[in-house]
Amino acid sequence: MSDVFVHPTAVVDEGASIGAGTRIWHFAHVMSGAVIGADVSIGQNVFVADGVRIGDGCKIQNNVSVYEGVELDEGVFCGPGMVFTNVRFPRALYPTANDEYAKTFVERGATIGAHATIVCGTRLGAWSFVAAGAVVVADIPAFALVAGVPARRIGWVCECGRPVKLHGGYGVCTVCGRAVRLIDEDTLEQVSP
To answer: Which residue, among 73, 71, 69, 105, has the nearest Cα to 87 in the 3D structure?
Structure first.
């Protein structure tokens, strides 16, 4: 684990794979089968379970538990206190076997706001943006901005994360200048780099 910073209060179990430049902060716990990419920031009091995959450049803020069955593509942002789940019908007296965990996949560049909840078995599209406090119960399209309980699409965002207003199915980000177009009701694509 060369070029990896692990705070003295953090626990990284033997067998965890951690990429160069990754920083693991106070009171975090990374289990043995976790695979964490390069240049990842694992905040204070974060738990990363066995079998979790976290891509390069992800930022996981304080007080987040990334449970088995969750996979984060590169560049995903997990806001403070957001929640992943991995069991659809949890019962203390009827535990779920590991092979029954519902998978959750968060695609490249997606943002999950503070205290949002991601119900297991969902896929968050590339560059999507989940507002703080939202509860995601279904798949989210790429570039979608979702909010509420349950989360519903309230708009679209640019790759840079800023909302984009569409006119006639096209829009240009007022911050970075990227152009986007609406393909159908649930599909937005970026048309300029």
So the answer is: 69
Q: Strand order of the sheet with strand 104-106?
A: 17-18, 35-36, 53-54, 70-72, 104-106, 123-124
Prediction pTM value:
0.95
Q: Return d(Cα 41, Cα 178) in angstroms, integer.
A: 27
Residue 96 bridge partners (DSSP): none
Contact 50, 33 (CB under 8 A): yes
Q: Which two tokens stand for residue 15?
A: 């067998």
Matching residue, tokens 């986007």: 180
Helix (H) or strand (E) segment spanning residue 164: strand 163-164
- Taking the C-alpha atoms of residue 47 and residue 68, their distance in angstroms, rounded to an integer, is 11
* Residue-level pLDDT at 2: 67
β 65-66/47-48 pair status:
parallel
